[in-house]
């Protein structure tokens, strides 16, 4: 909170810097002119200093206009934070990778919003998400249930419960959820819970 007030103070400082009038043109008064220039320089350097401080603060603290605040490299999709990996890993390796980013393999509330995100990134057709099955019951990694209407027609099929299969999202499919062997090597999507406070120290 104190940081927000500090930033507002800086804004006021910048906006209160008044334009300085030029000396009257009735006569050339070098002394007056030089004084005006000095004042302008001073005013400009004050503004530059204030802007620099604001930039520095916004770098130092995550200042977000909207919640949740998604720390880079996560991007906000409606009210969730996602990251499309550049590297290709197995499902287990991908899960570990996402945990290492303080997140989870993605367990989207809105599968179609995540599909739009993937298409917007010009991502690969197939990516791992954080879904798996135990005894034929498919859930997201946090145990939450999967909306049945998110599955591609025919999925999850009977045979997929017999194999070591994990959930993928396919851009070409509508609805997009399908399954692939967990041992396949693919790009994946991580999810971050988001930072709820508008201002948070970076450490
Ligand atoms: C990951 O796999 C995709 C699809 O096979 C490939 O286009 C991409 O170059 C791979 N990325 C890396 C970092 O190897
Ligand atoms: C697939 O599962 C459904 C429902 O559990 C069952 O009715 C059907 O016989 C199964 N099909 C095969 C080929 O096992």
From TrEMBL:
The yes or no answer to whether the keyword Zinc is present is no
Q: Which UniProt keywords apply?
A: Signal
Q: Which residue numbers delimit the C-type lectin domain?
A: 77-191
Annotated signal sequence is 1-17
Could you tell me the superkingdom of the organism this chain comes from? Eukaryota
Q: Which Pfam families match?
A: Lectin_C (PF00059)
What CDD domains has UniProt attached to this entry?
CLECT
**Stated name of the protein:** C-type lectin-like 40
């Amino acid at each position: 909170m104190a940081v927000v007030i500090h930033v507002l103070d800086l804004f006021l400082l910048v906006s209160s810097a008044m334009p300085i009038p030029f000396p009257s043109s009735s006569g050339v008064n070098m002394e007056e002119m030089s004084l005006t220039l000095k004042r302008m320089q001073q005013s400009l350097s004050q503004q530059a200093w204030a802007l620099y401080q604001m930039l520095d603060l916004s770098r130092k603290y995550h200042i977000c206009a909207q919640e949740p605040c998604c720390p880079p490299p996560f991007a906000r999709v409606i009210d969730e934070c996602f990251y499309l990996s550049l590297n290709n890993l197995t499902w287990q390796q991908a899960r570990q990778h996402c945990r290492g980013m303080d997140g989870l393999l993605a367990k989207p509330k809105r599968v179609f919003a995540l599909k739009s995100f993937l298409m917007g990134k010009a991502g690969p057709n197939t990516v791992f998400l954080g879904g798996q099955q135990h005894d034929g019951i498919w859930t997201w990694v946090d145990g939450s249930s999967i909306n049945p209407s998110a599955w591609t027609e025919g999925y999850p099929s009977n045979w997929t419960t017999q194999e070591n299969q994990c959930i993928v999202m396919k851009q070409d499919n509508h609805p997009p959820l399908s399954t692939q062997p967990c041992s396949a090597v693919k790009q994946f999507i991580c999810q971050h819970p988001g930072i709820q406070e508008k201002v948070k120290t970076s450490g």
